[in-house]
Model the fold of this input.
Amino acid sequence: MLNHLLKSKFVKNVFIVATGAAGAQVINILLSPLITRLYGPEAFGILGTFTSLTKIIIPIAALTYPVAIVLPQSDFNAKRLMKFSFLLTLLMSLVSIIILLLLKSNIIELFNLEEIKFLIYLIPMVIFFAGIMQIMEQWIIRTNQFTINAKTNFYQSLITNVSKVSAGLFIPTAAVLVILQAMSQGFRSLLIIILIRKKPYESNNNEEELKSYKQLAKEHKDFPLYRAPEELFSTISQNLPILLLTSFFGPAAAGFYNIGNMVLSMPSRLIGKAVGDVFYPRITKASHTGENLNHLIKKATLSLAAVGILPYGLIIIFGPF
Done:
């Protein structure tokens, strides 16, 4: 049974994705003590506020249409969804520029961003590159090129963290952290595009009808109608504490929260995202071939429970109450 599980393609793909994420997190863990001492909690509070403002918008930058890229049986339709998602991302970036032009002073004052007021216009750029990254990641998931995801995770973490340490030795300011964070999104997007070109996917199209942008948008309307609002409320609830702490108590308080939250959420992000990225195309393929979806969902849920029961069980048993 164990031997069969280890040879499973699903488990191998999860291992590949998790390895890249684990490597990235090891770098974060090793360099975080040095980075936090170079910059201090106030700089991390400003970075956390800037990041939170972008994170609220990023999941709905393309109205979650990128998530639908995995679903079409035809690569032609999937690529059309990619182009449609790109146009929506571009539109959302332009809208965010207009909002900043109108409300820049209010946003800076509300969230104590005076130190980086000249960098506030980086927000649309981060949204744009993050949207592109979402699109490319879904294509990677669709084509099972999970090694690309692992490599880009690792290299993004390595370059970003080493840059933070190097710059922090000379200019340990919040502005440096914000600039490097914004650049990291663009770097990873570019790296994904380069690696995909080096290893093109051999299309395996079938007889699915070729559809227009309008048909595809209508067919996958459940994503903007149901998934996008859920993503929006979820990201607001996750990032609201940082925004409130910054607004009421200042960047330093938000910085301590940001650092603690980042460290504590690492284990769940490591396994959860790896399994999710691999499971999504697997269950999509099962749906196309008429397999028993309930069985697959139960199996994945029980596997995640088995993986998480040891670390979280220890916290429940020995944690302070």
Notes: The two ends are 39 Å apart (CA to CA). Residues 31-265 form one domain.
